[in-house]
Amino acid sequence: MTKENSKRKILVTALAGFTAAQGVAGNLSTVYAKGAQEDTSSKEETKQAQKEASKKEQLEAQIKEAQEKVDAAQKEAEAKNTEAEAAKQEVGTANQAYTAQNTVVQTGYDALNGYIDESLQPLLNEIADLEAKIAQMTVNLNAEQKTSQEAEKAKQEAEKELANKKAALEDLQNQLAAMKTPEELETEYNQATEDAAKAQEATDTAQKEADEAQTALDTAQSDLTTKEDALNQARTDYESATAEVTEKQTAVDSAQALLDSMTDPDGMETAKAELETAKADLQTAQQKQTDAENTLASANLAYETAKTAKETAETNLANAQQAVTDTQNKLNDAKAKEQSSKDSLDAANAEKEKNEAAIKELNAKIATAQNEVNQAQTAYDKALNDFNSTMSPLEQAKKNLADFESKYATELSRLTAGSKGYFESLGCSEDVLSVFKVDDSYQGEVAGYTHMGQAGDATSLENMKASIPYLREFNEIRKKEGLSGLSVSMFMMAVAQVNANYAQVEGNHSSAYGTSENLAWGYGEAGTGASPFRGWYDYEKKQYEAGNHKFSEVGHYLNIVNQDDTITGFALQKVNGVYAQEFGEHNSFTKDVILSVDEFETSFNSYYDNLKSVDAQHKALKDAINNASGTTTKDDTAVTNALNLLNAKKNALTSLQNQKTDRENARSGMEVLVNEAKGSYNQAVQNTKAANQKVEEAKTTKANAENALNSAKAELASKENARQTASVNVNTAKTQAKEAQNKVNTLNDRINNWTTNTEKAEKNLADAKDALAKAKTKKAQLKDTFDTATDEHKKASDVFNDAKAASDDANARLATAKENLSKKDALRNAAKKAVDTYNTASARVESLETDIAKLADTITAKEAEKAKADENIEALTADIEATVNEKAKVDAEAAPLKNVKVVLKDVLINGSKADISTVGNEILTAKLSALQVEVDKAQALKADLEAKNTAYNDKYNEYLTAKSNLAKAEANHAEAMKALSDYLYESTDKNETNKGETTESKPSDVKTTSDVPNTGVAIGNSATSISAMGVALAGLGIVGAKRRKERK
């Protein structure tokens, strides 16, 4: 037996067990036996079959019990549905009666209101004209008061500025009076300028003379150096010539002595003795020469050192002289700055004292102004208390509004609650209301696109009301297709609304709730050629019938004609013309409120009309407040005038306080300026002392430099003498050493060549005498040259000394001239400053006098302007008072009619509870009494409607509970059927296995999926599809399989 055949046998067995509980065991044994070819001779198998038959009987008993519960739940659901339908009919009847009676009331109200307006409106128009006139005059009065206040303020400011400028003028005039005349100042300045020019000329002359003297000194110094070099050379040459004469004389004497000794018989012995002596003398002479040369080297070094020291001393003296000049100039500058800083300090102290005096004066003015403010405040408080003590009809209108808002608080709050308020009025569960909950979930994110109740939003009451025609058109289409109409689910309506708002922004399905969905953009009214069903249904149906079965292209049409759907919801979002419709099957696990289209329309329109009626009455009461606000006869002129006076006094006080604050703020700045000026002056005094000290130090340095130069000159002369002496000693030592050497040489030669040398000695004596004569002649010539060089050097030295004295004298005169120039410049600058100060002050005086004249004119003009404004204020105040009195008369005439309108509103709201005794007009009283009767009827019918609507909701909720119980019973029955089917299948499978046939695994439960892409149409998850489980096969997933096939 194949697996499919085995399943069919199990199916037949299950149906047999459902329809005939009696004799089941025998029949099933037969089927099982045929299907499994059982060996009846086996006892074990017989026992097993009996055991299985017992298990099967238990399962079949459970199915029977479940079926009985299904039947009972079905009966209960039908009974509750009948009761709900009956209650709904009663709601419809009550709603029609209430609507009709409400129309009667509204018609009566409008007629009576119009009747009153015929008499009241002309009076209201006149009141409005008078109020407009009063308002315009009040505007003019405010403008004049502002002009008066501004003129007064401008006048006060001008007076304040005038006082300040007069004070400043007086200060300047006192300052000018204390100064010399312009002519005297100009004369002093010219004289100081002339003196400074002469001092500059003298300084220039002294500078020129100092420069010329320095040039002459430099020339004399150069010539003296040249002459010193020539003198030194002449001296050296002369000393050399003298030494040569001495040498030649010695040579003659030696030659003579030699010749004498050569001719002496004892001459040889004498010569030998002299040789020994000569050798000793030679050693002594050579040592003296070495010592003399060393002394000369030391003397030369000492001379150069002394010469450098002299040059340094000359440079130091020149620098010291310049330092004296520079420090004297700085001292003069320091003295000028000291005087300038003293002048600044005096000015800063004067300004500070002036500011303190102004603060003292302002304190007195502020005290007076504060008293005036206190008086004005007292007057204003009294005027305000007087004004507030009066009452107006406005209060009654406000009380009526407050009472109404308290009574209809729920309805008023629902005016802005959108669809959520309607759902709450139906008693919808959190399953419905949570659709609008914004949180971190994806559904909460989608809900964030909704702006509850706002105009244009899909949740607005207008858009929800506009969805009803589309729901009717949809069901008419289904009726034309031979399909049953779908009920309106509040859950589906909520989902459609949030999805429409989402689509308006994102342009696509949200897919947040797993419903099937149609979306459209840019269409128009239902039942017209612009309806979205022209595209969803008309166009796509033609495509479908033409053979196009692609869900992405004809899915809207397929959703519309889906036989499995039982509920729907529709929403539109008129911002961009978005239309959204949801489709699905009711899920018993969702606590929903489901109505037919007629029920939904009746229920919603009743809710909508009631809110609009409440809104209209609420607006009428607000209008009554606005109308009543025009009936007040309270005159706020006294309050306004008192307030204006108080503000003017406060402004004056504030102005004085601001002036004082400015002065006090300036105090710290002035203190800083005084301290800074004091610091600058003290520093200038210290700088002058320091500069004077520098001058004295420079003079001391100069004196020291002069002394150092004189010492250096003396030292140089001493070293020059020592050098000359050392040079002479060297030459003398050289000559003596040479003579000693010559004597040794001569004696050696004489002894060795005695005979020959005798002849030679004669000749040498003659030569020596001849050389001596020439040396004497040369010495005489060099003596003349030396004498001439000495004279020239003396002359050059005298010239240098004269030039040095002249240069020192010129530099001294230059320093004196510069010091005098600095003083003259300071005097000239002081004179110039005095002239500038006088001219500045004089110009400021002229400017202040001009300003004072202008300010006087301004004060006169502002006084005239204020007087004119005050005159206009008086006239306008009188006109306003007259017009207010005229308006009071008209108000008094209109007051009874306004009272009737207030009473009329009260009657519209409270019916016979309203007090009409204050009307005082028989005709109006009769009409109001008749209207009270009609309002009482309407209120009674409304109460009846609300009671029946509550009863209907209760009945409908009972019906929903019964339906839920039925669904649970059906689900339990299906589970029992499935348990029996699974049991029979397992038993058959075991028999098939025993007979060696191939075994297949148990089929898994079929789950519904939705793999269709969203292209303007969406398919929901079939988790809500299994709502009616009346057929036992539903437990095996057949319905789900069918659904899956349709949505491929």
Describe this structure in words.
The chain has 1048 residues and is mainly α. Helix content is 82%, strand content 3%. The chain is built from 20 helices and six strands. A six-stranded mixed sheet has the order 5-1-3-4-2-6, with helices on both faces. The longest helix is centred in the last third of the chain and has 157 residues, at 754-910. It is elongated. Residues 1-41, 995-1015 and 1017-1048 have low confidence and may be disordered.
Q: Indicate the radius of gyration in whole angstroms.
A: 69 Å
Low-confidence stretches: 1-41, 995-1015, 1017-1048
- The oligomeric state of the chains shown is single chain
Q: DSSP helix count?
A: 20
**Portion in beta strands:** under 5%
The chain-level structural class is: mainly alpha
Helix content: over 70%
Order of helices and strands: HHHHHHHHHHHHEHEHHEEEHHHHEH
First CA to last CA: what distance?
34 Å
Number of strands: 6
Q: Outline the biggest β-sheet.
A: 6 strands, mixed
How are the strands of the biggest sheet laid out side by side? 5-1-3-4-2-6
Shape annotation = elongated
- Please state the average pLDDT score: 83
